[in-house]
Amino acid sequence: MTADQIPWIEPPGVYWGTLCGGPELASAWADKFLPGLRASWAPNAKGDGWYPGTTPCLSSLYAAARHAELLVLRPVLNRK
Predict the structure, then answer these.
(1) pTM (two decimals)
(2) Second label for 78, Cα 20 to 30 Å away, from 16, 41, 48, 49?
(3) Domain carrying residue 45
(4) Does a structural domain hold residue 2?
(5) Is residue 23 domain-resident?
């Protein structure tokens, strides 16, 4: 999903955490997606903050019950 810069398969990302089948696998997937998400949402990031792994990352974090991490993740708004 992250290699495809055009989100042709974006809808499964919403259910990514559920599709993992359990919190352990969901957590592992969240760990794979988090570096890209954090990089795209960083204050000094170039571009508009869009990352193709955003939705599956957030879904995985939720399914893994990593709620505290969800609460502190937020995109930097009003980039110039």
Answers:
(1) 0.77
(2) 16
(3) 11-72
(4) no
(5) yes
